[in-house]
Amino acid sequence: MARFLYILLAIFLFGVLIAIHEFGHFFTAKLLGVKVNEFAIGMGPAIWQSRKETGEPWEAGEKTLYSLRLFPIGGYCAMEGEDADTGDPRAFSRQKSWKKIIILCAGSFMNFLLGLVITVALFLGITHTRVPVVTQFADGFQHQGEDGLMAGDRILSVDGHGIWLYADVQNYLARNDGQGVDLVVERDGQRIVLKDFPMGRYDYEFGNGKYHGFGLIFGQVEELSIPARISQGAAQTFDFVRVVWMSLGDLVTGRVAVSELSGVIGVVDVVSEVGAQSEDVISGIQNVLYFMALIAVNLAVMNMLPIPALDGGRIFFVLLNVVIYAVSRRRIPEKYEGYVHAGAFVLLLALMAVVALHDVWNIFV
Q1: What is the DSSP letter of 219?
Q2: Rounded to 5 degrees, what are φ and ψ at 147?
Q3: pTM (2 decimals)?
Q4: Residues 272-328: pLDDT tens digits?
Q5: Which residues neighbour 362 within 8 Å (Cβ) at sequence distance 6 or greater?
């Protein structure tokens, strides 16, 4: 029963992510004087609709249809002339390039902002945190000393990646290919650079047990003030961005197989499982919200990729048209751009269908 409730919560939160994305488009479109034919919360049959005259000077007499639809799994903002010139001077297609870019970026910005707000809110409940300062070494660690690591060293970066949170140390060391890592540490107020430092995983003894790891012990814990909690929450949000970029890089380089991709079904399954396995309802909701913050940032980044049918792809065409017009005083015909976006959208749906089937297979097999 608890698993089912977390599934419903995850589905609802997915709907919130999509709805707030569309609200970003809606709000900026209205702000910049673009005609919006309909703004809908949810998908499917309408259960409530209202046409409301805005009363704004630039929208005199215009009525936007506001809809609440049956399935709470998204929403949309239908602007006049999104894919073709309808002749309306306030159509999206007739707006200046800077207006189009702002409207197209607004959806991803709202997703990122939601992820930031959720993460900061969660971090406000954290009073203490472990810091990336080496306090001691496991028995057998061979690289101690002035030419290596020393107790009290604060890890500042690993292979060029800034260490904003304690978890960053493990995340980036785990990507070590066995050839050594470039470390930057702070020691007695000075920055020390350790090039090609050997940091492989080995079997170590620590305390009364054994563990397989890097041999570094981080035992220092600091109390967090309110501003520090906010700062840590913001750092975690930007860490999400780095995780998404690294994941994309791993996918392109083959470090991660395409078969490991998960869609909405797979993510909902994982999120609900995490929630159901939590110690209590409060921690379960917090864990689900943490994952949803990560997904919100994921959506923000992915949607800005220059892929046709995504907002990033539309921005690419806006910028491409600016360049072409500056050189030749001509633009790409809108119908051809529409064909590209439509074709890419079909391919995207096909990929989503394949990933969804793979998710279902993994769940039941």
Answers
A1: -
A2: -90, 0
A3: 0.88
A4: 777 777 777 888 888 889 988 999 999 999 999 999 889 999 999 999 999 998 999
A5: 266
